[in-house]
Design goal:
Keywords: Membrane, Signal, Transmembrane, Transmembrane helix. The chain is α/β, with parallel strands linked by helices and about 425 residues long. About 40% of the residues lie in helices and about 10% in strands. Helix 7 packs parallel to helix 9. It binds 2-acetamido-2-deoxy-beta-D-glucopyranose (3 copies).
Length: about 425
């Protein structure tokens, strides 16, 4: 008698738990039932299913962080001369995440160089104003501090390098220390399209067989631990619908040591640098063809000048291939939104769009309150800044989309909770 009662109580407990947990789990897991490109993509190591296997282009994405000095701009232009082109004869793409000051404020960005590179077709993103230390600052920074650092830097770039803020869509946090919900809430509010700060991938090369590289994804569902794998790791825990993440899949040196930032892997000659990059390329190329991200600090080229020769040889090898595309990070994300096969890319328009229009002088700038006169006045004035440039921060359509998808996620959550409630009510009445 007592035993039966106990069993039925245990059964009741299990059923109620299942009723509550299953809808909850559904709301937490990303599924292609409710997350489809272009606005949403679940984290995955598989190529978009719409692509025919065997005709998937391999994207290679170079990005550089920190301040842009004339010397660094010279490195970039040696690596990416105008004649370095993709299979459709358009220039290879590069992304620069620019900070105003360097580490410990030793060097500052030369905005005339940034402007020149932007006009050559480089994508410009932000890396912060100050790059301040300690590194943990970026873990703990408040929402307001993220606004000042990132929107402030976007403002400086628009003012001094005359880049329309709407063209500055990407962000990387200094020292790869993500700022959790504060960082991503700021990004959603201030119309950033993507982040590229979250480190993922196994730390042992052998494990890459079972855990291949992750494709870019959206943060409609908070990332699981393996997707935001850096200590101490202030990872976002709220959903940020429509915000893209270009993940930093770990690379491996020729000796098998892991690194998230390409220049943390040691090389000892130009040839070794080439073999190191080639090895990581082949893992992507012969696997699922997730975009290969190469994240480099330009100090790599200063420390050892053979690295420049190694990267140069690698780039020439890449651009000699008919199914490899060296593109900007924003282009890689556009491709994720609307994946195209290699043949489709080859057939697509030859409009290369390497000369973005100059900033209009008369539009209004709605981020003027974030202007930091101290930082700005200490930076030398370039000819480009003599006219006060003003422009709109971003297109309103973009913001609307964020709100739409956030509402959608909230209403889905509401229905799941309602379902769970009705379910437990039913169980209660049936059994008791
Ligand atoms: C590289 O640096 C070494 C000395 O550090 C110098 O002798 C050599 O000429 C440099 N090579 C190039 C290609 O700049
Ligand atoms: C690229 O480098 C690899 C490895 O050294 C070599 O086998 C291949 O032929 C090269 N491809 C091109 C197009 O240069
Ligand atoms: C900016 O000026 C140009 C010509 O000077 C004009 O055609 C355009 O309408 C102006 N834009 C705004 C937003 O006022």
């Amino acid at each position: 008698m007592a035993k039966t009662e106990l069993t039925s109580r245990a059964a009741l407990f299990v059923i109620v738990w299942a009723c509550l947990a299953v809808p909850g789990a559904q709301a937490e897991l990303c599924s292609e039932l409710n997350c489809m490109p272009p606005h949403c993509r679940c984290p995955s190591t598989q190529a978009p299913f719409s692509l025919p296997p065997g005709d998937i282009p391999q994207l290679v994405v170079f990005s550089f962080d920190g301040p842009v000095t004339p010397k660094y701009a010279d490195f970039y232009q040696r690596l990416f001369p105008v004649g370095l082109v993709n299979p459709n004869k358009c220039s290879a793409g590069v992304t620069l995440f620019v900070s105003n000051a360097g580490e410990e404020g030793r060097i500052r960005t030369d905005y005339a160089s940034v402007q020149k590179l932007y006009r050559l077709g480089y994508e410009i993103g932000v890396n912060s104003m100050s790059m301040k230390r300690p590194e943990m600052f970026w873990n703990d920074a408040t929402y307001e501090e993220y606004v000042t650092e990132m929107v402030g830097q976007r403002y400086l770039l628009s003012l001094k390098a005359r880049i329309p803020p709407s063209q500055i869509r990407g962000l990387r946090v200094p020292y790869l220390q993500p700022g959790g919900n504060n960082q991503f809430r700021m990004m959603a509010d201030k119309n950033f399209m993507y982040d590229s700060s979250l480190v993922t991938g196994p730390v042992s090369e052998d494990a890459t067989e079972n855990q291949p590289a992750v494709f870019p994804y959206t943060l409609d569902v908070p990332p699981e631990k393996y997707l935001c794998d850096i200590a101490p790791g202030n990872c976002p825990t709220d959903p940020f619908p429509g915000i893209w993440e270009f993940p930093l899949n770990r690379l491996f040196s020729t000796h098998g040591a892991p690194c998230a930032v390409a220049d943390d892997c040691q090389t000892n000659s130009a040839d070794d640098t080439f073999r190191y990059l080639m090895k990581n390329f082949l893992r992507h190329y012969k696997g699922q063809r997730a975009p290969l991200g190469l994240f480099i600090r330009p100090t790599w080229f200063e420390k050892n000048n053979y690295t420049l020769a190694g990267v140069d040889a690698f780039l020439k090898n890449m651009t000699a291939r008919k199914d490899v595309w060296v593109v900007t990070m924003a282009q890689a994300i556009e491709w994720m939104k609307a994946p195209k096969s290699n043949s489709q890319l080859l057939m697509a328009s030859k409009d290369c769009n390497v000369n973005p229009p100059l900033l209009a002088n008369n539009a209004t700038l709605d981020i003027i309150d974030l202007y930091d006169p101290e930082v700005t006045s200490s930076t030398s004035t370039t000819p480009a800044t003599t006219k006060q440039g003003k422009t709109t921060a971003s297109s309103p359509a973009h913001g609307d989309r964020h709100i739409d998808s956030r509402n959608r996620a909230n209403s889905e959550m509401f229905y799941f909770k309602l379902l769970a409630f009705i379910c437990s009510l039913l169980v209660y009445h049936l059994i008791l």
